[in-house]
């Protein structure tokens, strides 16, 4: 059962990564090339979220997010003894965080936010994965502040930045 969940999580992670990679490539072709240069996707930990004068601002810590064979290569490079013992990156992904440098961005009021897992009811037994569940930015702020049963600040997020403003936030599930 645990192995099946790990496989499902790995496949989902690959799908999320593929969507981001495909959308980046697609947006960089044709007449959208000029706008694509202003759009970036980053994988980050969200360190702080503030609302000032009705505008949301996040401070993020950019990370390296590797999956599949890329994760195995990076894992072997960084942790050769562990790689030798287990043969690859645990659960098919690997995170690096070589810098404690943070970056702040404003978040568009209409930013798309998708969550995978969080405390929906205040009951531990109700915490379950719901892939790419759309929530409002206001709801995400509430989820972010609620660390009673599950702290979503410990999850990586894929953020899409256009013209210096976050327009999309996607929680990355990690087992």
Which properties best describe this structure?
175 residues, alpha+beta, two-stranded antiparallel ribbon, 5 helices, 8 strands, disordered N terminus
Word description of this protein:
The protein has 175 residues and is of the alpha+beta class. The chain has one domain. Helices cover 33% and strands 34% of the residues. The protein has helices at 2-27, 33-36, 68-78, 80-86, 137-145; strands at residues 39-52, 55-62, 64-67, 93-96, 103-115, 133-135, 156-162, 165-171. The strands form 2 sheets. The protein has a 5-stranded mixed β-barrel with strand order 1-2-5-8-7. It has a two-stranded antiparallel ribbon with strand order 3-4. It starts with a helix and ends with a strand.
Annotate the secondary structure layout.
Layout (H helix, E strand, L loop, with lengths): L1 H26 L5 H4 L2 E14 L2 E8 L1 E4 H11 L1 H7 L6 E4 L6 E13 L17 E3 L1 H9 L10 E7 L2 E7 L4
Parallel strand pairs: 5-8
Antiparallel strand pairs: 1-2, 1-7, 2-5, 3-4, 5-6, 7-8
Protein name: DUF4309 domain-containing protein
Keywords: Signal
